[in-house]
Design brief:
Shape: globular
Largest sheet: 8 strands, mixed
CATH architecture of the largest domain: 2-Layer Sandwich
Helix content: 40-55%
Strand order of the largest sheet: 1-5-6-11-10-9-7-8
CATH class of the largest domain: Alpha Beta
Radius of gyration: 28 Å
Distance between the termini: 51 Å
């Protein structure tokens, strides 16, 4: 007996209905990106491991999918290296490529590699899958799509403001009520400086970023286990748990960080971004959240995270400012900022909240029932005219039993069917049936087009 086929954990097949819904998300996001002057690019699924390693922190490096070298990849490995069973060292011998972890690092590589061909500031969007060797769970997959939008080659905080406007517009179109959380890595660096642990900023931010997932006690425990003194952890508590309005939090931060130059620079940047919103029609709530850290090491300024306000779910959009990501590839001092929409998580939220428009499911608007060769020849020119007028239409390919054809229409949620017999052909008409109401009317081809188009 043949083994039942399966797919790797953390990956999924998508049915036609699911693909139509996913394309609704992609098309909505893409339209908004284009409204703001962003242009598309694509990069390979595989990158050299030298491009990927060391860009996501120690935890991120562990989640990279490595691709084995072609051919007899083990032949160049010495026996003693195999016996040592050191997987990290062995990987460098047998694997030179990996599946991309995100779209930002490949984008930085692209900018450096093509710097003589692009115009700065360079505004690009990219909608492609990424892979992470993570433990699959609800809302977390090993293969998933990201919808990234970035601008590189500009230090202006107007870019941060526009990104939040893009978030606002995308979720208004998707009819999702969301909250934008905003922070600044310079503020976090200032906090680390104030508590006397400036060189431990990475350990502190990685721990703080898990606050929503593991709670304050476990965050404190993780920092202590990484060697951060208890006194510093105690000093940190009231800072990361500041409350009040955005203005009140910024005022408190000015007092707390007055002795930190980098911290005050972060506060100034936050104030500038918030000041723009006073004159803009942004309906999405934007909240200053000092517990937002974003675990990726390359962020240096503003950081964003977007969550659904209507249901408990992880982040569905996130990103931030990276001042010198291209520097690791040899192009120094080129600042960039961007955000990534998690299409798979957005899909899950829309699905659970039943927010997909009905028309996204109905790919075909009308189906012609097939009664035979004569009827086919009568229907095909009308079918062609409907399609020319933008009506999604099809004809059942075989003159099968009526029950089979109507079941097909029902299963595909086709709202209208057209039936043509001897009477209709003699009269030059068609019979149009509404599959919801059961109502049936006769129309001329011209009236049919007017009604359905």
């Amino acid at each position: 007996m043949a083994q039942k086929p399966s797919i790797p954990k953390g990956t999924r097949d998508f049915s036609p209905v699911e693909m139509v819904k996913r394309n609704y998300i992609f098309d909505t996001i893409k339209e908004v990106f284009q409204l703001y002057g962003f242009m598309p690019i694509e990069t390979p699924s595989m990158e050299n491991l030298s491009t990927l390693m060391g860009k996501y922190g120690e935890e991120g490096d562990k989640l990279l999918f490595k691709v084995l070298n072609s051919g007899d990849f083990i032949s160049k490995v010495r026996e003693e290296e195999l016996m040592a069973r050191n997987s990290n060292k062995l990987t460098t011998k047998i694997s030179e490529k990996g599946l991309r972890y995100d779209l930002t690092v490949p984008f930085a590589r692209y900018v450096v590699q093509h710097r003589n061909e692009i115009t700065f500031p360079f505004k690009r969007y990219q909608i492609q899958p990424v892979w992470r060797a993570d433990r699959p769970q609800k809302g977390r997959y090993r293969e998933f799509y990201q919808c990234d939008v970035d601008v590189v080659g500009s230090n202006s905080l107007l870019n941060e403001v526009e990104l939040i406007q893009i978030v606002d517009e995308v979720y208004k179109r998707l009819k999702l009520n969301v909250l934008v959380k905003l922070n600044n890595r310079k503020v976090l660096a200032g906090i680390a400086e104030i508590i006397g642990e400036a060189d431990r900023i990475i350990d502190i931010t990685v721990a703080i970023d898990k606050l929503d997932k593991i709670g304050l006690d476990n965050v404190n425990k993780e920092m202590f286990e990484k060697g951060i003194p208890q006194a510093a952890i105690d000093t940190l508590q009231p800072i990361i748990l500041l409350s009040g309005t955005n203005i009140e939090k910024l005022a408190q931060l000015k007092d707390v960080l007055s002795a930190s130059e980098v911290g005050m620079k972060g506060v100034e940047e936050l104030e500038t971004v918030f000041s723009y919103f006073a004159d803009l029609d942004v309906s999405t709530e934007v909240e200053l959240d000092l517990t937002l850290a974003r675990g990726l090491n390359y962020y240096t300024g503003a950081i964003f995270e977007v969550k659904s306000k209507d249901m408990e779910f992880g982040s569905i959009t996130g990103g931030g400012r990276y001042d010198d990501l291209t520097g690791i590839f040899g192009l120094k001092d080129v600042s960039g900022v961007g955000i990534s929409f998690g299409a798979d998580r957005i899909y899950d939220v829309l699905e659970q909240m039943n927010r997909f428009p009905a028309e996204t499911v109905n790919t075909t608007k009308v189906m012609f029932v097939n009664f035979g060769e004569k009827e086919e020849k009568y229907c095909l020119p009308i079918l062609a005219r409907l399609r020319m007028n933008g009506v999604k239409a099809e004809i059942f390919p075989d003159s099968a039993k009526m029950k089979k054809q109507m079941t097909y229409a029902n299963d595909k949620h086709i709202p209208f069917v057209i039936m043509v017999g001897e009477t209709e052909m003699e009269e030059g008409l068609v019979s149009l049936k509404d599959m919801d109401s059961g109502e049936q009317i006769k129309l001329s081809p011209e009236a049919l087009i007017e009604k359905l188009a």
